[in-house]
């Protein structure tokens, strides 16, 4: 079983454990703010399950119907997570509205806060693990899951602080107000996650720093070529797709041109695990610029 799959399974287990703790905290206090926190954890469980499925599909090798692999499955999971976050935010806003209309005193707030705080500690540790290993293994689904949990940690801390303030002042209306702030925060987080994931589905180019590195590698290993142009890139999870036109002398043999391509491909694949490189070789009369090796 791959590391990403193990982490996806771990997210599901942690999600259920944290959800149980937060539901307990809500039941003990009746706090709308803690209810909003528990509702977000419900989303965590659903999206962790979606991430598990996405990681499993993305790990499948290319086949006849998917010759470029299944890497984009993880982006679908991240989009789903963003949508679920938005839905949770709207449900929390609904509960906050009714709470504002009828603010009520909380039961056993300190005990509930302790339980909720324990769940927050678990979430913060697991968020760090997911983001760290998700970036290392270039898994959008795991990174999205970790960032969502990190948002959950921030809102949980805010919830606890607000309840303590309400407990100290007796202003119980702070509870639904705080729940509304939580909803707005996760609504922003969800919309941002959807936007970033859709960029991946739309074949967004690699980041500028990665593109610069690709250019440098091609320049350093294109010995015998006179020009490179029409460099295009896109990314899908751990896979990077690179294609460009390579200009060589018109009298160069196929073998010699193929050797140059092999050297460039090997260098790119060594630098970027999972890189898919496509090179179109052209004779010198197809050159777009003259002089030394040119990238554009």
List keywords for this structure.
about 300 residues, mainly alpha, Alpha-lytic protease prodomain-like, Alpha-Beta Plaits, 2 domains, three-stranded mixed sheet, 8 helices, about 70% helix, cell membrane, zinc efflux antiporter activity, transmembrane, cadmium ion transmembrane transporter activity
How would you briefly describe this protein structure?
This protein is mainly alpha-helical and 296 residues long. The chain has helices spanning 3-29, 32-58, 73-101, 109-136, 140-169, 174-201, 208-221, 254-271, and strands at 227-236, 239-248, 275-283.
Protein model, in words:
There is one protein chain. The protein is mainly alpha-helical and 296 residues long. The protein contains eight helices and three strands. The chain has two domains: 3-201, Cation efflux protein transmembrane domain (Alpha-lytic protease prodomain-like), CATH 1.20.1510; 208-286, Cation efflux protein, cytoplasmic domain (Alpha-Beta Plaits, 2-Layer Sandwich), CATH 3.30.70. The protein has helices spanning 3-29, 32-58, 73-101, 109-136, 140-169, 174-201, 208-221, 254-271, and strands at 227-236, 239-248, 275-283. Helix 2 (32-58) runs antiparallel to helix 5 (140-169) and helix 5 (140-169) runs antiparallel to helix 6 (174-201). The radius of gyration is 25 Å and the shape is elongated.
């Amino acid at each position: 079983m791959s590391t990403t799959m193990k982490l996806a399974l771990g997210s599901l287990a942690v999600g259920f454990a944290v959800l149980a703790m937060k539901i307990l905290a809500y039941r003990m206090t009746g706090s709308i703010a803690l209810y909003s926190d528990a509702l977000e954890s419900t989303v965590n469980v659903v999206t962790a399950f979606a991430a598990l499925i996405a990681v499993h599909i993305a790990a499948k090798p290319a086949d006849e119907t998917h010759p470029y692999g299944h890497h984009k499955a993880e982006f679908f999971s991240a989009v789903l997570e963003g949508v679920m976050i938005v839905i949770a935010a709207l449900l929390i806003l609904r509960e906050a509205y009714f709470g504002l209309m009828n603010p009520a005193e909380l039961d056993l707030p300190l005990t509930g806060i302790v339980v909720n705080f324990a769940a927050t500690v678990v979430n913060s540790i697991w968020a760090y693990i997911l983001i760290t290993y998700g970036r290392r293994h270039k898994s959008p689904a795991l990174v999205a899951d970790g960032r969502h949990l990190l948002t959950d940690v921030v809102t949980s801390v805010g919830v606890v602080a607000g309840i303590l303030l309400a407990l100290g002042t007796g202003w119980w209306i702070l509870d639904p107000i705080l729940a509304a702030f939580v909803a707005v925060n996760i609504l922003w987080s969800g919309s941002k996650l959807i936007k970033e994931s859709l960029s991946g589905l739309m074949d967004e180019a690699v980041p500028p720093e990665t593109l610069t590195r690709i250019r440098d590698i091609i320049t350093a290993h294109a010995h015998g070529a006179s020009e490179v142009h029409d460099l295009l890139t896109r990314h899908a999870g751990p896979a990077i797709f690179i294609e460009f036109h390579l200009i060589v002398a018109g009298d160069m043999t196929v073998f010699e041109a193929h050797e140059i391509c092999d050297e460039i491909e090997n260098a790119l694949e060594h630098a970027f695990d999972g890189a898919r490189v496509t090179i179109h070789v052209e004779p010198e009369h197809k050159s777009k610029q003259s002089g030394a090796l040119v990238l554009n």
